[in-house]
Design goal:
The chain contains six helices and no strands. The radius of gyration is 15 Å and the shape is flat. It starts with a helix and ends in a 16-residue tail after the last helix. 73% of the residues lie in helices and 0% in strands. The longest helix is centred in the middle third of the chain and has 24 residues, at 40-63. It has helices at residues 2-17, 24-36, 40-63, 71-91, 95-112, 118-136. α3 runs antiparallel to α4 and α4 (71-91) runs antiparallel to α5. It is mainly alpha-helical.
Length: 152
């Protein structure tokens, strides 16, 4: 994992120096790797960075004359970023923030992916679990953050 972290940081540096490079998936992969290393505060920061970039990518075509064909794919990655952010909030025991992140991801998934999509189902299940956890005030440990499908 430490080697992966080293190379992901190098990739991020290269991407940030290249005009028009997409850093969002690298931020999500850094989030997942850091989460597995137990570095949840850093992981949460990378999830937030991915969200900012992905939000811009998804909303810009929606406000322009017509939606681009990859909006659904970008929306799917945006939903994964919301999931990863929520997982990190759970690790840090910020259950209300986790609930908000899951709910935001679920809204995007509903609008662009539909209720049959596995990302929608994952967010819906996770939202229900964190709501139950939040209401019962019991601590529960979540699974690691999800990396992007491109790396599988």
């Amino acid at each position: 994992l430490r080697s992966a972290l080293k190379y992901l940081n190098l990739a991020l540096q290269l991407e940030e120096g290249a005009a028009g490079a997409d850093t969002s998936q690298t931020h999500l992969n850094l989030c997942a790797t850091l989460s597995q290393l137990g570095r949840h505060q850093e992981a949460m920061m990378h999830a937030q960075m991915a969200l900012i970039k992905l939000y811009e990518d998804v909303t810009t075509p929606l406000v322009s004359s017509g939606a681009e064909p990859d909006v659904a794919e970008r929306a799917s990655i945006l939903c994964i970023a919301y999931h990863n952010l929520a997982v990190e909030h759970e690790y840090l025991k910020n259950f209300k923030a986790a609930e908000r992140a899951y709910a935001s991801g679920l809204r995007w998934a509903q609008a662009y992916l539909g209720a049959d999509h596995q990302v929608f189902q994952l967010l819906n299940k996770s939202l229900g679990a964190v709501r139950q956890l939040s209401s019962s005030s019991k601590t529960r440990r979540r699974g690691p953050a999800v990396d992007t499908q491109e790396d599988r």
